[in-house]
Amino acid sequence: MMKRGEKNHHHHHHHHHVINPSLCFWLLFMLGWISRTSNSIGCNAQEEEEKFRFGARVYNTSSVAVSGKLNVHLVPHTHDDVGWLKTVDQYFIGSNNSIQVAAVQYVLDSVVAALQEDRNRKFIYVEQAFFQRWWREQTPRKQKIVQKLVKRGQLEFINGGYSMHDEAATHYVDMIDQTTLGHRYIKQQFDVTPRIGWQIDPFGHSAVQAYLLGAELGFDAFFFARADYQDLQKRRKDQTMEVIWQGSKSLGSSAQIFAGVLSHHYEPPSAFSFDIDSTNPPFQDDPRLSDYNVPELVDLFVEYVQNQSKEFRTNHLMWTMGDDFAYEYANTWFKQMDKLIHYVNLDGRVNALYSTPSIYLDAKYAANETWPLKTGDFFPYADKSHCYWTGYFTSRSSLKGYVRKLSGFLQAARQVEFLVGKNLRSGGPNTDNLEEAMALLQHHDGVSGTEKQHVANDYAERLAVGSAEAAEVFNSALAVLLSSTPTHERPHQYIMGGRTNDSLEQHRLLQEQEDIARKNLGSVSAAGLKLEQCFLLNISYCPTSETELPFGKSLIVVVYNPLGWTREEYVRFPVSSAALEVIDGAGNSIPSQLVPLPKSAYRLRKLYVDGNDASVADNSLPRFHLVFSAVVPPLGYTTFRIHKASSASTTTSHPYVSMESSTAETLRAPSTVQLTSGQIELSFSGTTGLLTQLRNANTGKATALQQSYCWYNGSDGRTAEDPYQASGAYVFRPNTSTCFQLKRVMQMTVFRGPLVEEVHQSFAPWLSQVIRIYKDAEYAEVHFTVGPIPIDDSLGKEVVTRLTTNLTSNKEFYTDSNGRDFLKRVRDQRTDWDLIVKEPIAGNYYPLNLGIYLKDNTTDLSVLVDRAVGGSSISDGELELMLHRRLLHDDGRGVGEALNETVCNSNGECEGLTVQGTFYINIGPSEQSAQWRRAHGQKVLMPLQFAFSVLEDGNGGVIQSPEFSAMNPHYELPKNVAIVTLQEVYDDDDSKVLLRLANIFEVEESEILSKSATVDLQALFSNREIDEVEEVSLSANQKKSEMRKKMQWRIEGAAAAGDSSHKNTPHGDPMIKSTPHRDPMIKNSSCGDPMIRTKYMVVLAPMEIKTFLIEF
């Protein structure tokens, strides 16, 4: 069962032997006339040979690797998608088998039984989403047996994440989360830490996967099956299938990893696939029966092995003995492999053995060979000349957006869950379900958009259910904090060895409040403050914020900031009333502005709300977005109160606090329009309505910038070259290189006011956008609405936005790797081979999770994105993003459906799915642009989170702490450090806090911020005193100090290993890498008792992530 059009990588030559000279030998052996030469297990050869003769076959499977021969490491495995053609639960249970016969529960049942029959047998297992479903159903006795198999090395966990995550459409924060979840289970149940990365099916491989989710996890190697067909041809020829991969220029050789492309996709050559449904003849070794075939199969095996050995270095080769959902009946595989090993080793030309990737790797390491160096990544991936798998970078854009949105929400919910104490045993809501749903979605047929529609629906439902529970946690935790007495008045000095009485008292109060909160975590929250989430703000729907506010009622908006920096940002949400006043946490009236909703918002709201909530009448439509500036402390919140303005507050006597409605100009006749923010100015054409220029007010420099939309026609596969290859969920194949332009704006309206200026543009009934610039912003924000994409002309469409400047970018542009490092791309070029260009558009597309930029000598054009998308630079000075795809044909890679997403109203009328999203444009001097990309990128990744409530004015007293920060007053993280994770976890029943900090700059990225940064861990937790800090591995499954020493590989042209070493000193410096206690360097640097103040200082070098388990 080769998946997704991988068939016939190799041509299998089956030899029909007329007469084989070794046949006599075999027959003699079989009948017991020649005594066995291989080592016998336990008893002497005579006895075994007797057993053999009477049909009780005993095969010798005890072989280990030998020198002087080719060693074939047979690695039994199953590749189990946690959702693809069926949902994760259907795959586990074995239901919906008319789609695909697959049942993981039987795979694990039968593998465990088969391993018990022979101690030499081995098996590797990967996906924890399935293993955990199985494990919790097993009896304690069965669990003990499995633990023993793991201890004996017969069953090995490889990769060990909850899923085998995608590498294009995933963000590093979510990749770390899902891996940590899987590793936590394995550590708790088996006390082992996986050491091999196994990303055999994802469609292209990222630099972040290699160095961060490889080397930095403590993995010794990383194996995968898919690489570009042109790349593979060259690698097979040059013996560069296995390399030492340095994925990060900042971490260099300190984060390198042995990386290998598997020889034959991830299954064995077809004659040696032994699954229960295989049509191959098995080993028939009884000469008394017909079809005796041992010599033929041994010869064929040896021939394959000798051919494969020409492509690999050393005398060790790996064969992956398995496939998608293989081993549902494990006996057929193991029985045949027992025979294979036995007869191949009797033949003696090559040596076959049961093995695992770890055993294989150790053999490779012992060979002391030299290996080629690989930098960069393995994108994009093509399996044939017109088949670039770059469509899935955008496929199911709305699902990708939902995943990213809930990623930000999960981080915030886990933070406040920690601040008030996690519900573990009380059975109240917690964030675990959302964490598991998010981990599932990182799968390479999840967020990638390459699953069947019913599976995408199942994924979305899991996210919705998980987020509803996390919302209860978030709302009730915020309510506890809001109704607690403020703690920030207390003195911040610590007394040696303990707390001041003052803070002890505070601690006791906090504990009491936590206890009360735990009892009330249902619908009633602390002291009657009930907060609501508005998950449907994307369709301008928030019943709480839209409430008509008569005098005597206020809308309370709590704005939470999950970042470690204070942020000042403009926030917006729908309201129904025009005369409103906004009061901040300190009780001051602050400026606000009303902006009418764009027309597209009404249509979408009606379509989606109608379908979901019948109680919404048309006349209750909100009329405006209310916009105001929120200044929110780090890891904390600010509360705003919005109420009906008394007539006085809108008069000219309070010009600065008045609520301003935006002035509107609807332009039917074209005229030149400008939007300004104080920092930048945008100009729009008088003839087309399109954006034409961006001027930077600080530098005075104007750059011609056109922003427009166009669509590629997705091929239907009816082409002369490569017929049948259509554009689909995986593959982007435009019919021609032409992108059909939407040439002019059909209608536009401009809104201006003191806080934001925006232009609403409609290009077609199915495509509109809002371009806005907030006061003092150095960037423009574009909010697009694309859909329903029309298909009445029977043409599939892939919708793109293009930004065109006159910057001379010399074919070069930069895209991020999973939201972390930026990699340089060169149009129509690959670093590892001379590219033969067959697809000038699709072959230049790369995955974006953070953004894309290009530059000339002085200026950068940068675009940041709010979800995973595909992007490119097809002409110099120009960037493009693919925003949405609607296609009418399957692309033949296995999913068996066209990517044609629809949505239906309550009457069952359906239309194509509409996608909305936001991207951000900045043009500026390179240094400022580099800083903006990182700082703004963090804000997009971890957006402010809102909670709403309507309060009677008499009940204002429930809010005791309108402002809060978990950090020390006046402390914030350095500008180049971000909090990646702050989560309460349970480790042997002890509550600990998992904290990850990241330096978000690469070496040489910014003159000012590409430096090491120091963080005071204690300052992050103002009302708790740290008791102990342990630095741990990235997935928190081992102490940093106890991690295996990295393997030191010899690299071809050895200088390569050292050429980036000057950059690696901070990362490799043992003083900084050790646990952060009492770092002598920073001993007396700050006020207060030096011993206490500097006990928990940690240093992060560029692009370094450090992970800690903290106890209070």
UniProtKB/TrEMBL annotation:
UniProt-listed Enzyme Commission number(s): 3.2.1.-
CDD domains: GH38N_AMII_LAM_like
Membrane spanning residue stretches: none
Cofactor binding remark: Binds 1 zinc ion per subunit.
Catalyzed reactions per annotation: Hydrolysis of terminal, non-reducing alpha-D-mannose residues in alpha-D-mannosides
Tree of life domain: Eukaryota
The Glycoside hydrolase family 38 central domain, residue ranges: 387-463
Keywords: Disulfide bond, Glycoprotein, Glycosidase, Hydrolase, Metal-binding, Signal, Zinc
Segment forming the signal sequence: 1-39
Cofactor: Zn(2+)
InterPro entries linked to this entry: Gal_mutarotase_sf_dom, GH38_C, Glyco_hydro/deAcase_b/a-brl, Glyco_hydro_38_C, Glyco_hydro_38_cen, Glyco_hydro_38_cen_sf, Glyco_hydro_38_N, Glyco_hydro_38_N_sf
Enzyme class: hydrolase
Region (Disordered): 1054-1086
Pfam families on file: Alpha-mann_mid, Glyco_hydro38C2, Glyco_hydro_38C, Glyco_hydro_38N
SUPFAM superfamilies: Families 57/38 glycoside transferase middle domain, Galactose mutarotase-like, Glycoside hydrolase/deacetylase
Keyword Cytoplasm: no
Similarity remark: Belongs to the glycosyl hydrolase 38 family.
Name of this chain's protein: Alpha-mannosidase
Organism per entry: Sphagnum troendelagicum
